[in-house]
Amino acid sequence: MKRIILSALGLLTLSGAYAQLKPEKMTPESSELWDPEPRLVTPGTLTGNLLGTTAPSDALVLFDGSGLDQWVSSEDAKSPAPFTVKDGAMTVAPKKGGIQTRQEFGDFQLHIEWRSPSEVKGSGQGRGNSGIFLQGIYELQVLDSYNNRTYANGQAGSIYKQTPPLVNPVKAPGEWQSYDVIYTAPRFNKDGMVTVPAYVTVLLNGVVVQLHTQIQGTTPYVGRPINKPHGKGPISLQDHGDLVSFRNIWIREL
Amino acid sequence: MKRIILSALGLLTLSGAYAQLKPEKMTPESSELWDPEPRLVTPGTLTGNLLGTTAPSDALVLFDGSGLDQWVSSEDAKSPAPFTVKDGAMTVAPKKGGIQTRQEFGDFQLHIEWRSPSEVKGSGQGRGNSGIFLQGIYELQVLDSYNNRTYANGQAGSIYKQTPPLVNPVKAPGEWQSYDVIYTAPRFNKDGMVTVPAYVTVLLNGVVVQLHTQIQGTTPYVGRPINKPHGKGPISLQDHGDLVSFRNIWIREL
Amino acid sequence: MKRIILSALGLLTLSGAYAQLKPEKMTPESSELWDPEPRLVTPGTLTGNLLGTTAPSDALVLFDGSGLDQWVSSEDAKSPAPFTVKDGAMTVAPKKGGIQTRQEFGDFQLHIEWRSPSEVKGSGQGRGNSGIFLQGIYELQVLDSYNNRTYANGQAGSIYKQTPPLVNPVKAPGEWQSYDVIYTAPRFNKDGMVTVPAYVTVLLNGVVVQLHTQIQGTTPYVGRPINKPHGKGPISLQDHGDLVSFRNIWIREL
Amino acid sequence: MKRIILSALGLLTLSGAYAQLKPEKMTPESSELWDPEPRLVTPGTLTGNLLGTTAPSDALVLFDGSGLDQWVSSEDAKSPAPFTVKDGAMTVAPKKGGIQTRQEFGDFQLHIEWRSPSEVKGSGQGRGNSGIFLQGIYELQVLDSYNNRTYANGQAGSIYKQTPPLVNPVKAPGEWQSYDVIYTAPRFNKDGMVTVPAYVTVLLNGVVVQLHTQIQGTTPYVGRPINKPHGKGPISLQDHGDLVSFRNIWIREL
């Protein structure tokens, strides 16, 4: 009761020009929306030294440390994923090629943890380099960007060769790092033009590095972004020749 | 003429009609962007049973369990914040009013953890009810929504009386829950109309519940959203009469 | 030649921190994108006293004054459209019901001209009232809003019961008025929740009244917006009992 | 308790999972929004052979054919604008430099008409080339793109070296063409990073060519887009050496 009275008083303190007329015609129920009822999800739990929770109940577990069943070779979808699995992590097997998920996705939330080698070799793009390709096409860069200057749109947290991260919250090589990715897919018209672009929001180690960033197209090493119509696509992990590891990977279709 | 021929050849190596011509004129450096260099941030760490990291190095710690220095009374900014502090958590002191931060914010990333009482009393909106007001105006609902049906746009994870959460990943009463909020402020013109709306993305217990949601205006208990121009604003926490607790609160200006 | 030199000089005047490094590695061709080539469209022409051009070559002409072939009854898609056609305009036949297009649309650009009766009767919502339903669902209000105060989110240029127009550029009753509408359709997930909202930009008599406005859901007379998944939908015109007329209607799928 | 019972009953009387409960508690007034009342604007009129209306009452007339009072030299803001004025049009005076408005703008709606020379000379970027710089920085390309193939992100309707037009609705050289531009300015943070990008929607000859396109940064001839913080800025028109003309230019701050 008291709260309702306070609400009414609150209306009086709003300046007249912006007040809503006829409050007497409104009831609290007028602005309630009951259906559909949001579906129940059991959130994951923080265990061990994970940087994020285990998979929520409605997520597809892409990797929990036990095997590569959800993955195949990026070069040949009929071949097994060539990464190595040890101690709960999967690691690039250099020169054996990248891997991609068996399943394909549209709009999604992705959690993935990664680690660049503790033994630092090389510099710039040559140090702890890998990548996460959203829908198999758009690269979210993975790089050891700890005291390792390279071009801003090529460091960890960047949409490769497009948008730099807002900040650089990367940890030291050898430490696990986390990505939380919220992605909505592009829409193309009959001409092959984009009518609704892909957007992505990314947290790196819990810090926002991409903020509803429009993806401009492909993310090639040489050349500028282009747009080619596509439907759902997999998550792909790059073999860039470095011993980058991954763990605790799960995805929820939005 | 020569270009067209090269284009045709390009088609063979790239895929079809969407290939970019003249790749021979490009170098990897053409698409590098070096400056400004993203600022370094040391990410927070996971300690104890926190549901998120401690504050990153560029965050303002709003509450780490030790005191309410960053907060004042919502009713009188010259009065101390009336919440109680115990065991590393702050808790609503029913009927003593809400609290708000001393500082004000524009675009921000906010982390906050909350807990509804383990002893369940009441139902619907009467159970474990509080709220987090973004810029002191727009309410992200806090509610014990565990086995507690209420209107969808009034349960935990909703923008109150506006947008329901995409799913309901809430935990049992007595357990800590986390919000990660990414918010960009609205822009108003001289007429008081919105030209660029506020948008918010929210993760509840690590699960996306608001996905670049446009905030429609104020979030009153009675009445519909209205828009009144404003500048920066505080984070406010509501006293709705229930013993809701908060901890591990930090904010980064984006 | 001279222009290229000036470009190089221009780089020097940029403040260092934001300059792009290594311009010597770039060529003009590096940022050219050749394919796909934008499809040719012959724009429409301004003729007679139309407020917009006739249909561009890739538009579907929904009404050019000659007949209602593209329309059916909203109440029964097997029945002919009950509006009357005279002097190049179609007019609501009060109490005979609304009309809708035979074809359905997703993302589109719509041009439509409308006229409220020159003889003013009634006031508020009772004067020159009709509506244009985007995808048959979301109402862009048509109303004689000339010296006729009503609720802001119910006047001409509003998304009905949602978002008021930024300004009121309406003409006197009896004069033709124009809408140019740019609309992208919503995307729903399996739960029936919106993942990508519908957005609309509207010019009324050439003046922006809706600016990338997020459509919140349905636009009922009583009740708040709700969201129910749907695919493509028609353009519908409302019979609200007033002799509102329409002309020069064309639509382009985006 | 009573409320819950009513809710259950409501489910029975409405249609299925998406119905909104408790309509009996709603009235039509519940969803009315009365204030602020949208400001009155008298729309412009179509006269002569203009491709758009004259300026609405709240617009700033930048050029109505009578003189260059609103413009100065882009190279020296204290010098008069070097374009020539004749027969109601202003025309580039080759090699005398571009021009820019005296006033600066944030979010705006711009109408401008342009004409490339009827005598065709050159090809590609060398034919009827000029440009409209939004906030003096971001180029909306002006080019004789009639039967004149060039790179897609360099033809009329493109955001130069960024986003091609969705289609090519350009008219023959010597004919007047129109741009209607709806622009919201970017927001930068203290680090110089973009938090809210600039977006632009463009109609060329009444046909949508840019659809809420995110502007990626500057639009250089050589190099890729960069972002440098700025406030309001002028409208600038380019001298690219060709005799491009402009007329009927007006702007409204949004």
Query: For this structure, what is the CATH homologous superfamily of chain A?
Result: Exo-inulinase, domain 1
CATH top level label of chain A: Mainly Beta
Residues in helices of chain A, as a percent range? under 10%
What is the average per-residue confidence, as pLDDT of chain A, rounded to a whole number? Answer: 90
The radius of gyration computed from the alpha-carbon positions of chain A, rounded to a whole number of angstroms, is 22 Å
The number of helical elements of chain A comes to 1
Shape of chain A: globular
CATH architecture identity of chain A: Sandwich
Helix/strand class of chain A: mainly beta
Largest sheet geometry of chain A: 8 strands, antiparallel
Instruction: Report strand % of chain A.
Output: 25-35%
- Under CATH, the topology of chain A can be stated as Jelly Rolls
Output the helix-strand order of chain A: HEEEEEEEEEEEEEEEEE
Q: What is the domain total for the residues of chain A?
A: 1
Unreliable sequence segments of chain A = 1-24
Q: Oligomeric state of the chains?
A: homotetramer
Count of strand segments of chain A: 17
Show the largest interface. Answer: A-B, 80 and 76 residues
**End-to-end Cα distance of chain A:** 39 Å
Write up what this structure looks like.
4 copies of one chain form a homotetramer. In chain A, the strands form 3 sheets. In chain A, strands 2, 4, 5, 7, 11, 14, 15 and 17 form an 8-stranded antiparallel β-sheet that branches. Chain A has a 5-stranded antiparallel β-sheet with strand order 3-6-16-8-9, with no helix packed on it. Chain A has 1 helix and 17 strands. Helix content of chain A is 5%, strand content 30%. Chain A has a single domain (29-253), classed as Exo-inulinase, domain 1 (Jelly Rolls, Sandwich). The first copy, chain A, has 254 residues and is mainly β. The model of chain A is unreliable at 1-24 (pLDDT under 50). Chain A has one helix at 2-13, and strands at 39-40, 60-63, 71-73, 84-86, 89-91, 99-101, 108-115, 130-134, 138-142, 167-168, 177-184, 187-188, 194-196, 199-204, 207-214, 236-237, 245-253. Chains in contact: A-B, A-C, A-D, B-C, B-D, C-D. Strand 10 of chain A pairs parallel with strand 1 (39-40) of chain B.
